[in-house]
Amino acid sequence: MLRPANVVWPAVAAEPQVAYEAVIGIECHVQLNTHTKAFCKCTTSKAAANANVCPICLAHPGTLPVLNEGVLRKAVIAGLALTCNIARQSKFDRKQYFYPDLPKGYQISQYDEPICSGGRIETVLPDGSTRSVGITRAHIEEDAGKLVHSGSDQLSGSDYSLVDYNRAGVPLLEVVSEPDMRSGAEAAAYASELRRIMVFMGLTDGVMAEGHLRFDVNVSVREQGNEALGTKVEVKNMNSFSAMQRAIEFEIERQVDLHKSGRRSEILQETRLFDESKSQTFTMRVKEGLADYRYFPEPDLPALHVSDNLIEEEKERMPEVPSAVRRRYADLNLPSADILILADEMPILRYFDAVVAAGASPKLAANWVLGDLMAFTKESKCSFDDLLLAPATLAELVNAIEEGLVSGKIGKQVLPDLLQGGGKGGVKAYMKEKGLIQISDPAALETLVDNVLAANPKQLQDYCAGKKKLLGFFAGQLMKASKGLANPEMLNRVLTKKLMEAEKAAEPLDK
Amino acid sequence: MQRRPALLAQHSSRTAGSIHKEYFTSARLTGASRLVSSDKLQKSLASTRSLVCCAAAAAPPVTTTSLIRQIQHDLRSKTRSSVEITEQYLEQLEAAEPQVLSFITVAAESARAAARQLDDRIAREGTSGLEPLAGVPLGIKDTLCTAGMETTAGARVLKGYIPSYDATAVARLKAAGAILVGKTNCDAFAMGSTTESSDYQVTRNPWDLERVPGGSSGGSAAAVAAEQCVGTLGSDTGGSIRQPAHFCGVVGIKPTYGRVSRSGLIAYGSSLDCVGPLARIVEDAALMLSAIAGGDDMDATSSPRPVQDYAEGLPQASSLNSRPLAGKRIGIIKETIGAGVAAGVSAAFARAARHLESLGADVDEVSLPSSDAGLPAYYVIATSEASSNLSRFDGVRYGLHKQGANIRELYNETRGEGLNAEVKRRILMGTYALSAGYYDAYYKRAQQVRTLVQREMYAALAEHDALISPAAPTAAYRIGQVNSDPLEMYKGDLMTVNLNLAGLPAMVVPCGFEVGGGSRGQPLPVGLQIIGRAFGEADMISLGHIFEQTCDFACGRPEGFR
Fold this sequence. Notes:
The complex is a heterodimer of chains A (511) and B (562).
Chain A: E1 20-31, H1 69-81, E2 85-86, E3 89-90, E4 93-96, E5 106-109, E6 116-124, E7 130-142, E8 146-150, E9 160-164, E10 171-177, H2 184-200, E11 213-223, E12 233-236, H3 241-260, E13 270-275, E14 280-286, E15 296-297, E16 304-305, H4 308-317, H5 322-331, H6 336-342, H7 346-357, H8 362-379, H9 391-402, H10 408-419, H11 427-433, H12 442-455, H13 457-464, H14 470-481, H15 488-510
Helix pairs in contact in A: 1-4, 2-3, 7-8, 7-9, 12-14, 12-15, 13-15, 14-15
Chain B: H1 9-14, H2 26-31, H3 38-41, E1 52-53, H4 55-58, H5 67-77, H6 82-100, E2 103-106, H7 108-125, E3 137-141, H8 168-175, E4 179-184, H9 218-225, E5 231-236, H10 242-248, E6 251-254, E7 274-279, H11 282-292, E8 329-333, H12 343-358, E9 362-366, H13 371-389, H14 407-418, H15 421-434, H16 440-463, E10 466-470, H17 486-491, H18 497-502, E11 506-514, E12 524-531, H19 537-550
Parallel strand pairs in B: 3-4, 3-5, 8-9, 8-10
Antiparallel strand pairs in B: 1-11, 2-4, 5-7, 6-7, 6-11, 10-12, 11-12
Helix pairs in contact in B: 6-7, 9-10, 13-15, 13-16
């Protein structure tokens, strides 16, 4: 219908302001780090293309899958860590589609009876605040192979494509969240917490660039207060949590703009990829109707039974989840910023815990770990696991400083040597050997001060005459004379006392 | 090459006067809850007499002793060497092959080499360590993978495919000393009841070369009937061992699902597929089954239950008393007799039932009302699984590979050419049944029927030691008779599919002939299907053995192939 020329339509901006809300859910494929593949005995270690293959994972005629027990155990651990219900009986299904990287023409997965369901995890935002995110389900499936295209990014349009089946049959755990997140930051916090949980549980090395975790984010936007969900868009190809956050923020803005400008219908149910360099998402493929995967129960695998016994076994063996670590550190009265870093990576927290276990004060240990040691690991690109400085040695150093045996300054001075493996025989012996034990004996300090004052009569005279700035001069001379070993606090006390005495002694002369 | 045609005309010419006294019609059976004593039936049966006879009465006496035991004996006594035995079978194989076409691949050279090796070993080490199947020439259905030996499953798409591994059943036969003489023909991917769906050849029924041997293990049954080897392996998804055994007058065993590993069996319907032996003698089939049965790490659906030696303790015919089945309760499945069953089959079956009764068994009828629903349920489940199982034949990694401008075209060209009409039909049916919106109406419903069928079978077997039925409604089809009408062909599986749905063991033992049923009046074999309890192979085989050893009307060999 044509609009009469004389009618002026209100500009969009003039409409009453409507608030929009994003609804975000995340599916994550976690590559479980079993030694062998999910359904055959091929190794999962890195290898030349198509070196880790056998008739089973190549889907040769007559071959059958047999479940790797390690996959089951890892899935149970994951479920426990995500506080899911572990199904005592579940089953495998076939998800069917044709693609050259999928040898059987179907993927063994779990459709309507996942092994884990109904969990919840606590995520932390950078400001330290927490959000709880529901876990809908987690199920076991197998990975596909990898296609390498020549002449194009995709199979269609390529001159030729090569398939590497090393990855085919590698076990995956697909973790599906509830649509509980409302912003890019919340989504990134969820994703990093999920990664942290999986790494802490020892289920994956968590290297994003290696595809150990792959996130698909579903984003939709609706008017605030509206129950109904908007059309959801799937975003893939985010290689870091910050990329995920940016991708979601872009996508929310794009969708809100379309809502605001009355072009809501242009939001299509599609898969979009994130272009990191442009910080934008773009269409990969539009879903034409719902894909029919013709799921049906996998007849080659019997029902999956999980005994109470197995669950108890794994529960006992299970490491601490990150949120528990954070709570534990909060109980140690560590500042929340420190907690976030200490409880972020397994090697750091393992190291920190060992230092504290060896008797160091948590606060002081945290300072060393997050300060000098962290800087060192970053600089030398090593992990806390690789440090030559044993946690017990660091604890000894921390305690020696706290007890006044050595000064903090000396501590920092010797750290590089300790990081190279020095001090293996104990910090005290090391300090003694190097003559670095702090002088805290009052008598020795008094002699030291007397000697320095006696050696500098002019300055002493000036000081007594009112040049109080010379206190620093004496302190410097004293440190020099003690080769930096004097306990600064005590030394200061002795010096002040001696100077006051000298002043008193000088007074009658002036009068 | 001169060979006598596979005609048994002399049998039919003698049949008129050789009607056995004990028989009855299926019509009478249907109404009876107990078998009616045969003399009561005499008067009412006049009209069917001409159809019924005992062909074996006219056939030359045949041995029902184990061929495998004979080979074992000959090797131990040095009467024959393994090379001599193998050559003898290879000669028969080559001689019969041009007419019967049982084999897709003949492995004469490797068989000879294996035989020479065995003879060398015997010369070196003696015979004390001989394995149970040492030197026994066997054929393997082409649906089973054989390392280094072409394996096509009867399908074009796998032409030239050479597996890198042996199916577990094959590996176990080899480990038991067997000598493989080749790969037997079958309907492509075991989809068919005639071998007419083989992409390579149509196997002929040795009893009547104008007829099919049944299917899909038609090559396996024909090879045994034509004595091209001592026994064969078949696979049975809906009757593919039992129906050809019935058509060809041999013994065929479909074990309990999970009793024999499916690893290396090219899958048709994974939840139904069973590997089993075919042989001329029950004891030989039992020896083969003993070798191949048992749990397998390569098949998660295989059962870890311990395996019995199914041949051990089978009574000698001479040691049997007059009522060896006294106390055994045998149920005739009511729904498998009566309307729709050919008179000749009915008669032979009825006579077999009477025979069992005469051996002391307590034979009655048992109704399994869900039986009829089994066939459609079977075709839904089998084709659904098949549609998925056959996805791997995509031209990407092995087998037929057709170039295409894009991946879709590669798939279309490869599968279009590599899969035949029957295979495509079943893939389409299965794909349809699993499609969104149809799943509940077809696949799910079929699984419910399956549960029902299984429940009824188990209930019946709680009351009976075994159930019996004909193996198929008719004797062997003429070539082309049902191939053009898939539904007609599918109906032939009526009596066998329910056991696959229930996962129960079942075997077919020759039980007589449809006299004059052949194209030129030859007798056509008829088999008796015996159904056992889950993992009750030992009892079932014992019953089949006693039936075989006491039955003087069932055995025989096709004339032209002796």
